[in-house]
Write the structure tokens for this entry.
Amino acid sequence: MKHLLIILSLFLFSFTVISCSDEKEDSTENSGTTTTTTTDDTTKFVGVGNSGTIVRSTDNGSSFDNATSPTSNHLWGVRFGNNTFVGVGTSGTIVRSTDNGSSFSTVTSPTSNELRGVGFGNNTFVAVGTSGTIVRSTDNGSSFDNVTSPTSTTLWGVTFGNNTFVGVGESGTIVRSTDNGSSFYNVTSPTANSLYDVGFGNYTFVGVGTSGTIVRSTENGASFSTVTSPTSTTLWGVGFGNYTFVGVGNSGTIVRSTDNGSSFDNVTSPTSTTLWGVTFGNNIFVGVGNSGTIVRSTDNGSSFSTVTSPTSNFLWGVGFSE
């Protein structure tokens, strides 16, 4: 009987230890789950504008805060690549952030010409600007060098896709590089209207510009054709995501294509303020414009709503970190 009691006691003790161990394990798993479901702080929207204004969102574009800027010069464009944001602007200004837009520093520029747009691809940043200026960085935006340009016409926008950089500018100018931005050449343009931005997605380049002009290339930027536009309003920016192109422009105009840029339709806009730039990230389109205007779409560009802005300064460009 005594032996039976001892065996029973040992059994109960072992059961208690195992139960406690299970509870501890459950607690650890729950703690781990809590940790992994916290808000991801690795993706950011960054907008740039007048007087060096930089704004930043860490909640998927729902809200924005001002970021400290190292310059008072206007910033026209911003792009993200290889864990780095690069912004460009007046007087050849170049700024750079390697901490996801938390802080920026100035970069020595090889030009005093205005830089209007910047693109990234194949570990290379390329910026374009007035008088056909093209500059290039192969060290993650730490330094830039001038690239011989095939044009003296102002270039407004540049993007990268399928191992090709394409830049666009005034009077319908289109330039192209297939050697990682080392050299550029002119591409025959289907329009004499100025083109202010160019985007890439699904093996297609789309440029937008004056009087609602839209051009498109499915030949890797080697040739372009015009696309019937639903608006005669000037379009200043274009972005791509989820098989959708979105263009933005004067008077809050927003246009959208879901057939690879073959056709566009107007989208009801929540603002009558001019929008200068638009980008896509994490299933969100974000556009920026005059007087600090920020708009946002969570349904693939079908509809947009305004976002409270921390600034009244014009915002010229917006980028997203992946």
Q: What stands out?
A: DSSP finds one helix and 28 strands in the chain.
